Automatic annotation (TrEMBL):
<dbReference type="InterPro" id="IPR040982">
    <property type="entry name" value="DNA_pol3_finger"/>
</dbReference>
<dbReference type="Pfam" id="PF14579">
    <property type="entry name" value="HHH_6"/>
</dbReference>
<keyword id="KW-0235">DNA replication</keyword>
<keyword id="KW-0808">Transferase</keyword>
<comment type="similarity">
    <text>Belongs to the DNA polymerase type-C family. DnaE2 subfamily.</text>
</comment>
<dbReference type="GO" id="GO:0006260">
    <property type="term" value="P:DNA replication"/>
</dbReference>
<dbReference type="Pfam" id="PF01336">
    <property type="entry name" value="tRNA_anti-codon"/>
</dbReference>
<dbReference type="Pfam" id="PF07733">
    <property type="entry name" value="DNA_pol3_alpha"/>
</dbReference>
<keyword id="KW-0963">Cytoplasm</keyword>
<dbReference type="InterPro" id="IPR004805">
    <property type="entry name" value="DnaE2/DnaE/PolC"/>
</dbReference>
<comment type="function">
    <text>DNA polymerase involved in damage-induced mutagenesis and translesion synthesis (TLS). It is not the major replicative DNA polymerase.</text>
</comment>
<dbReference type="Pfam" id="PF17657">
    <property type="entry name" value="DNA_pol3_finger"/>
</dbReference>
<feature type="domain" description="DNA polymerase helix-hairpin-helix motif">
    <location>
        <begin position="631"/>
        <end position="719"/>
    </location>
</feature>
<keyword id="KW-0548">Nucleotidyltransferase</keyword>
<keyword id="KW-0234">DNA repair</keyword>
<dbReference type="GO" id="GO:0008408">
    <property type="term" value="F:3'-5' exonuclease activity"/>
</dbReference>
<feature type="region of interest" description="Disordered">
    <location>
        <begin position="905"/>
        <end position="930"/>
    </location>
</feature>
Length: 930
């Protein structure tokens, strides 16, 4: 019977009574301490977490809180002192602890059996499927080297009893491809090292052609299950998930869990609420945080927000917030990791029902299942696959080309020429600012160049200082040299096979691993520790333990210490985020396919991107602008021409915006409109939308506000008037004719002047998030020109290092972890984009402008980096109020919160007036990545 000594005033009497009760029933008294925190100083944080859990404040929590700080982890000596009256209780606790010898190794895990043809074992069936797939992959005959590789892989798969796992993945992939229409999918990660996966159709990259290493995927020495990741279209992945549930049953299939931890903004908001801060103060504190990561709330930023740091209550809140950051908050579902078992899941792991409908998950995360050696099936979602599938459908419909991921024409010089110019907006993996800047420097000319392009803009190569040496060698500015050991320690070509393809510079995870094996002479166990450390460094810091071992061993064998240290720094960077070559090759395949589509069919590519939102770096406005720059005619959304999705016109060269672009228009309402139009022909007036499609006046007004009634011969202002003149109530038969007559009379009597163009553009952004009429900056240009501001298109005519003044709408804010505090901001004006570089000191001085401005004026210095022009900012001004002047609407429009996809930065202008229909975005939200 458990007892705790908590200085509650009645401890001796209570424990004595419990001891008597235990003896009376033949039980032992057990000393415990009801531990809630490891040291007494953490008690305030426990109080805050209790208040959060009960949705109250600390001040109002009352008896929900413990009366003192005694529920901390006490030393054995202190427990002996507290229980000196009952020494048998401490003895019983020790005996119970010694009896608890459970290990995860005691749990038995069985992978489910797969259905095979009668009389065949899973291994036999896998081998047959593999060789049949090889014949399909190599129609001219399977090369002898590939046959040898397949035989070796299949033998190891059989030895490790993994055939059923491979058959499961193939079954899932086959299900996706056999749907009507097929679900696009592709394997990635270390599975791309496997020739078996390639021949089974799981992955798309030939490991033989790209010299990928199977040992990176499966190794007998590691004694770990393989991990096959498969990407599916993000809009249709749920079909695959539900197939797995049907195939194995909910009692045998569940998604893995992931632990959600408190990040800075979440911690500020919840601690602030629990400590009784007002909403405006909590919001001001949250706006001081840049990005979602970090471990502190800097006091200088709090002061800049206008808050009083001498307030002791505020200081307590800040201290508690820093303690809260990184604490577990709740369990969530893994992005797609499935656990499958032969018997009921409950015999191995606890399970729960997900918040999403028809989802169940196990309450262990990926580290837990790795410890048990459970095989995980990763069913992941990728927006670009959705975009590519929709684009390929458009090619078949409008251009008569039936293509798949595997049949898109290879090694097209026009595609590489486009990429060399940094023309990659919307292209998978290479559309970020850093990748766009790298493309003209790396100048890819073949597929393997894309593999390097994907991998090189990552913390691993950057922190290892491998990027610039590689680029110099690629351009012929530096001789290619491969480090070698001293003559007494090994052959001079020891690393040639590892580094030759990357010009003597390690770029990929596998290269760093092989350098540790061959140059630092790590044994298998040490290499396995290093591999695990690379995967978990960000959270655990395990790599540091191996630094001296690797650097000193390489130096002792004659390698240059600087090279050895750079290799280790690269491994440290890989721990934060780096790509193995196989993963980069899988992604490079999608880079090429999306580039080919953009190069040859820009209208279809833009259409696919718009219909797959939200995804990628850029908002619909930038996707449309880029399409127009590539010669695509973009037509407005219209009730008589648009479907729900964006579509191509009959000739395939023009893009018609879909009704999905209209903010707040439900898909089922748009479907009713399209159905009525297809059944009864085009609509003649706003009244027909109500009568035939059953649309409410509020919906018709939303369509009118989006200028989607242009085909009815109505200007936006006139359409809004007509929509508001419709009678909302359903007409009674007796008055139906009179109502129709009155509505028509109202429209005939009133003819309104056309909106000014600037108001039209504002209204477009408010309702569509883009405008086909003009760019907002065009209306500010005359004033800006008088003040000496230049356009984006004019920057190329400026001399290097000359001072300029530029202005534009903020599209993207980025502060990569590998950039050492440098911030990159992309502005847009009516002629193009402006790339800003914000050094850390300027970012801190003008933090509020960097984080919150929607329209930014910049004074800075022009710099050229090959084909890319940058402006190195020296002073920033928040000119967001200029956007409000574009409309005659006297209400100050509330700027929307920034990108909801990746850790938002809040930018607001003016007080909110939520009830007014025009109080919405003037400019689409920036997308912010940290």
């Amino acid at each position: 019977m458990a007892a705790s000594y908590l200085y509650s005033g009645d401890d001796i009497a209570r424990i004595t009574a419990l001891d008597a009760l235990a003896r009376e029933h033949g039980l032992s008294l057990l000393a415990t301490n009801d531990v809630h925190y490891h040291e007494a100083a953490r008690r305030p944080l426990q109080d805050v977490m209790t208040a959060i859990r009960h949705k109250t404040t600390v001040a109002r929590a009352g008896h929900l809180l413990h009366p003192n700080a005694e529920r901390h982890l006490k030393s054995p000596e202190e427990m002996l002192r507290l229980f000196e009256r009952w020494p048998q209780a401490v003895t019983a606790a020790r005996e119970l602890a010694d009896a608890c010898t459970f290990s995860l190794d005691e749990l038995r895990y069985e992978y489910p059996e797969e259905i095979c043809p009668e009389g065949r074992t899973p291994q036999d069936w896998l081998e047959e499927q593999t060789w049949a797939g090889a014949d399909g992959r190599y129609p001219s005959g399977v090369p002898a080297s590939v046959r040898t590789t397949l035989a070796r892989e299949l033998a190891l798969i059989g030895k490790l009893n993994l055939a059923t796992y491979f058959l499961t993945i193939k079954d899932i992939v086959d299900f996706a491809r056999n749907q009507d229409p097929p679900i696009l999918c592709q394997g990635r990660g270390s599975a791309a090292n496997s020739a078996v996966c390639y021949c089974l159709g799981i992955t798309a990259v030939d490991p033989a052609r790209h010299a990928l290493l199977f040992d990176r995927f499966i190794s007998e020495d590691r004694n770990e299950p393989p991990d096959i990741d498969v990407d599916f279209e993000h809009e249709r992945r749920e079909e695959v998930i539900q197939y797995i549930y049907r195939r194995y049953g909910r009692q045998r299939a569940g998604l893995c869990a992931t632990v959600i931890h408190y990040r800075p903004r979440m911690a500020i908001r919840e601690v602030g609420k629990a400590m009784g801060l007002t909403e405006d103060v909590t919001a001001a504190l949250a706006r001081t945080v840049w990005g979602g990561w970090g471990s502190e709330v800097a006091e200088r930023n709090v002061e800049q927000a206008g808050l009083d740091l001498t307030d002791p209550h505020l200081k307590r809140v800040l201290k508690l917030t820093e303690q809260m950051i990184g604490m577990p908050r709740h369990l969530s579902q893994h992005v797609g990791g499935f656990i499958l078992t032969q018997g009921p899941l409950t015999e191995t792991v606890p399970i729960g029902n997900g918040a999403m409908a028809d989802r169940s998950f196990i309450e262990w995360d990926k580290d837990d299942i790795d410890a048990l050696g459970i095989l995980k099936v990763d069913v992941l979602a990728l927006g670009m696959l959705t975009c590519i599938r929709k684009c390929l459908d458009l090619l078949g419909e409008h251009h008569g080309r039936s293509l798949t991921l595997a049949t898109v024409p290879r090694e097209d010089p026009a595609v590489y020429a486009m990429l060399c110019k940094g023309d990659s907006l919307g292209v998978f993996q290479v559309e970020s600012r850093a990748q766009m800047n790298m493309l003209p420097r790396l100048r890819p000319r073949e597929f393997y160049d894309l593999v390097i392009q994907v991998a090189i803009v990552r913390p691993g190569p950057i922190q290892g200082d491998m990027v610039h040496p590689y680029l110099r060698r690629r351009r012929g500015e530096e001789a290619v040299s491969i480090p070698a050991p001293g003559p007494a320690f090994g052959p001079p070509d020891e690393l040639t096979s590892i580094l030759a393809r990357t010009l003597g510079v390690p770029i990929f995870q596998e290269q760093a691993m092989k350098i540790a094996l061959d140059a630092a002479k790590f044994n298998g166990a040490e290499a396995n520790r290093l591999r695990k450390a690379m995967a978990t460094f960000r959270r655990r810091g395990m790599v540091e333990e191996l630094q001296d071992m690797m650097v000193e061993r390489m130096t002792a064998r004659g390698y240059d210490r600087e090279f050895a240290q750079r290799c280790f720094n690269q491994i440290r960077g890989f721990g934060e985020y780096g790509f193995p070559e196989s993963h980069a090759a899988s992604f490079a395949h999608l880079v090429y396919v999306s580039s080919w589509l953009k190069c040859h069919y820009p209208a279809a590519f833009a259409c696919g991107l718009l219909n797959s939102q939200p995804m990628g770096f850029y908002a619909p406005a930038q996707i449309v602008r880029d399409a127009v720059e590539h010669g695509v005619t973009v037509l407005p959304a219209d009730v008589n021409h648009s479907m729900w999705d964006c579509t191509l016109e009959a000739d395939g060269a023009a893009l018609r915006l879909g009704l999905r672009q209209i903010d707040g228009l439900p898909e089922n309402v748009a479907a009713a409109l399209v159905s009525a139009r297809e059944a009864g022909g085009k609509f003649a007036d706003a009244g027909a939308l109500k009568a035939r499609a059953g649309l409410s006046p509020a919906v018709i007004e939303r369509l009118a506000a989006a200028d989607a009634l242009g085909s009815l011969g109505l200007s936006r202002r006139q359409a809004l008037w007509d929509a508001r003149s419709l009678i909302a109530a359903p007409p009674l038969p007796l008055f139906a004719a009179a109502d129709a007559r009155d509505e028509g009379e109202e429209r005939r009597r009133t003819r309104l002047p056309v909106m000014p163009l600037s108001e039209e553009v504002v209204a477009d952004y408010q309702t569509l998030r883009l405008s086909l009429k003009a760019h907002p900056m065009a209306f500010l240009r005359a004033e800006l020109a008088e003040r000496g501001f230049v356009r984006a298109a004019d920057l190329r005519d400026r001399k290097v290092r000359s001072m300029v003044r530029v202005a534009g709408v903020v599209l993207v804010r980025q502060q990569p972890g590998s950039a050492k505090g440098v911030c990159f901001i992309t502005l847009e004006d009516e002629t193009g984009v402006i790339n800003l570089v914000i050094w850390p000191d300027l970012k801190e001085k003008q933090r509020s402008v960097v984080m919150g401005a929607r329209l930014m004026e910049v004074r800075g210095r022009v710099e050229y980096d090959d084909e890319v022009i940058h402006v190195i900012a020296q002073h920033l001004t928040d000119a967001s109020e200029g956007l409000a002047r574009l409309s005659d609407d006297p209400l100050a429009p509330a700027m929307a919160r920034a990108d909801e996809v990746n850790r938002p930065v809040v930018g607001r202008m003016g007080p909110p007036a939520r009830s007014h229909p025009r109080n919405v975005r003037v400019i689409p939200k920036s997308r912010d990545f940290h």
